[in-house]
Structure formats: structure tokens, C-alpha cells
Amino acid sequence: MDAELVVGHSGIFEVAVNGQVVVEKTRAGFPTPQEVVESVARALPKS
Length: 47
Fold this sequence. Notes:
Elements: E1 14-17, E2 20-24, H1 33-43
């Protein structure tokens, strides 16, 4: 599995798995590192 960093603009922060956004910045702010890891883990296929 590969990861890719894509530079955005206007403060956009989204994390996607297989093209599906699983977590993003909201008006409340950035997700915590743990929220990012958990969101990605839930989106990955179970082996």
C-alpha cells in the first residue's frame, strides 16, 4: 500500500483511502493524529 501527499490550497486537509475521504478538517479544526489513524484503519480492507 502506498501513501501520497497532495498539496492543497485554502487550508484544505483531507485524508482519503482508495479515493474515499475518511477524515477531514472541519470548522472545529484539524482531526487528531489518533482520529486520522483510526479512520484510515477502518477504511482499509480487512485481511
